[in-house]
Structures
1.
Amino acid sequence: MDLLAHQLIHNIYVPSSATLRRRSDDSASVSVAHVEDQVQHKLRSLTELPMYKENIMNGKYPQRICKYCKMKTTFYCVGCSDLENDYLVSYCGFGTSRDCYIQHLTEMGF
């Protein structure tokens, strides 16, 4: 076990020019989170909407189609949606490998 630990710590196969960074230093996530705090175009979960409460109680979680990638998503944009007229604009959230919400913010000029 000590040999394996030593080999992992002193890995000779990683070039000295390689720079490693922590996950928490992801500048894209930080900048998007910062922008999201300043704008009205925030992502919210569809489960927070009263119109889906009965479905959730029956074990059916709401899904809508993303405006960009046309895949199923469980988020909507507060700024683009009109809840009084049941008009929702949905985008994929950060938990997916897609960047639909970032595209939306870019399109909106943020």
2.
Amino acid sequence: MPCWLCVEWECGNDTFICAACQKKKDVTYKKDCHKATHSLARLSHTVASSKQTVEETLGSLNSRLTEDLADVRSRMEKLEARVDQRITAVEQRLSKMEELLLQVLTAVSIPQSSS
């Protein structure tokens, strides 16, 4: 069952509040230091009852982040390729438009200004 952990420095790290008790407003604190105005952090069941060591948790997070980073890199490479294709297509179209414009200017015999 999810629970809440008081994150205020006065309470230390051992003031947990059951989510069901919090919902019913039936909370009694074992320390006099905790107040209803303190900030709470929600802990899920898997985190609160996990038997993993810190090293195992960090290893798991590291592998997940590595996979996510590889996915992001792959998606970025695909996006870069699409952008490059689009830029090339736009440059080709602009070049064709320039050629057509020159042909039109030549056909109507308008002198071109030299730059």
3.
Amino acid sequence: MQPKENEDLCLIAIGVLLHLGSFSISSALNSTAGVLLPNAASTLMALTLHGTLTRWRPCWSRAPGLSPSQGLLLLLLEQMAVVFAVELLLIHAWVPMVIGLIKVYEDFVQSLLACRNEYLLSHFPRSVSWLNNEGFYYARFLMALTLALAIASFQHWISIRVRPAGRRPAARTSAEKSTSTIHISIPHKTAQGNTQQFIDLRLEEFSTC
């Protein structure tokens, strides 16, 4: 692993730990500013954003002619700049998305319960309780996971391609299978350079036509 990659991993780990510890540069600069409380979804977003921004940092600390103390100071400044940028993105982009999800989820649950309230309460009381209490947290994490995968795909950390394994034949038996393959390529560096490791997932479906 290259020295820059080691630095990037350290910066990402420190940034996520600061997020879990509710460290906020905005609240330190402005006492009236609120602090974003960490949860599973926000931590996943913080990890993804730290990985993205750390990858594009200017690397001033690795400039030639710097003493170790100067390089460490510049590395600390880069860390604080990335932490502050991630904090701003979480406050001004992630939080409004969560607020919008709250409104959509509340409208969905209220509409569902308004239509079949008595039937659902009598036949599926645990499901209704789950929707009212825990369902939103799963929806919020699913939204964060979707955004994290989209950002990872945009950054070419992963690439997902779906292609059919073959054309559908004209006549098929009752137990004939239709197979498609999902190729997930994960780029990584080796001593010979950049390579891609492919993971093939085969999806099989049975057709009765």
4.
Amino acid sequence: MHVSLEEQARDSPAAGKLSMLLFQVLADKTSAPLSRNDFYLFLKKEHSEENFDFYMSVLNYRKMCKKGVDAEIGDVASKIIETFMLSNGQREICLTSKVKTAILKSIQVDQTYTPEIFNDALLEVLSIMRASSFPKFFEENSKDYGDDAGLHTIVPDDLTNETGLESDMAKDQDPLILQVLQNRLASPLSLADFYNYLVKKHSEKDLEFILLLEHYRKHCRDIPEFVLRNGVTVHSSRNQLHAMTLEIREMFLRDNHLKLSEAIQSQLRSKLEDDADYHPDVFDGAYVFVMERFKNTFIPAFYTQGLETEKGW
């Protein structure tokens, strides 16, 4: 029995995330090191690019169907069969006999050229890529992903202007979460989509905190550590640091909008209020707490929702 990618996603959140990311890669909506070209080069290295080529050929066939030129549509369909589906084809793909027979009958006997004619074959090819080549590609290309996390992120207008995840914070994070937070994915998995999803869950403060904290880290980058740490230091930056940390406390910590543990809240009060320690790592406990919630709760559900709404494959 054939299992669709949607069914795989419902069975496993992790499978759902990879399936959704596969669609984004194939649609060329991701950037290096997880771009479509990166995936194709990986497949060529593995000598298994025929599934990718078949996928792209079917997309081209669908475009021809929209143009409505019958002669050209027939030629393109026949070329796909000759190349990918016949036993002596140049790049034969692995299909079940039921699917292959049905397609051959529709085209060679009935001469039916509908946009959906290759759908069942496409599903099988996508499932093969999802189960074998794409996980290997993802594992290999995301090992050092954190070292490539310096892109700016354009965030929703009602949050702030722009920010970026610094590599020292990003290197230990889930690459799939970083794809969203760096706004590397297109709708329905963009940063704005994620923010709107959190609004519906009444948890948008989590994302606002992460983004504001990144802005604060960027601000502190060139300030000497002794100025950040020492509450008795007289320095022009101290008043601004105090104002910025006060803003974070008022927005997120006073009423515990982030639902932090008592231990984390106590540590923050001690560092910020008693010690006047304004180093960004004071917030690390809260940062990890919120990112774990993203990883274990919000991101899997958000990816699954995106998988259910994504069209065009």
